[in-house]
Amino acid sequence: MHMRIATRHGRSVLISPDSTSLVDVGEASRGRFGPAPRSVYDAWAEFVEWAGHASIDFAADGIPLILEELGAPSPDPRQVFAIGLNYRDHADESGLDYPTSPPTFTKFAGSFAGPVGELVLPAATVDWEAELVVVVGRRAERVTAAGAWSYVAGLTVGQDYSERALQLAGPAPQFSLGKSFPGFAPQGPWLVTLDEIADPDDLSIECRVNGEVMQSSSTKQLIFSVPQLVERLSAVLPLMPGDVVFTGTPAGIGGARKPARFLREGDVVETTISGIGDLRQLCVDATRRENDR
Question: Residue 40 is part of which domain span?
């Protein structure tokens, strides 16, 4: 069934077809599902079946959709996977060989945020990374790529904001910490189920800073496709319902530019993936934020 699911104030909500209103899952299902988002993913097959037959009157029962009120579609996953160097054009701009297995790190859930809001800059070397994000719909253990899409609840838009100085500090790089400051993992605006997407293996992805296009690519550039990632990751450990996978970023990051370009106070970062939606963050300097308190 065609469905878009989001979170509002920590509760699962369904989005109206025209994206103007929402209904609370717990209330609409009379307590059968939700309100906690993880509980919805834990019962994903049953939830999809219910939602496909539920008569939801958004006009009568819905409340206005305000993007600033939304959180990440899966806000407290058991596991978060993030894949590095997974676009051919990004590997090319980095001057690195294509990996033979997916370089994997994590973004800690404390960095999760909703689709629209402020991004507090903790340093002068914060970079952008537009990403397609996958949310797992059922336990996946040693699955094959051929059947992997059936384990996916849906797709959303993400940003893998990265503080490059900490990320690349040696002798051992701190990828996970450098990418996990508060607000460094905005996602949304909602989760889109696969039946709403014409070709989930070929989605245009774009990042703009102050209206200037910085990244423009397609998920067909992925070195490891979503099904291949599910196969590779689930060969090592089980993927659980609600788990989140950041699939990598295309070319155009600030750190690869000459000269390098990083985010500054007042910058507006917009991230778009076709068929899913948009993110928007306004950059705020951490020092000024502390002084304002």
Answer: 4-65
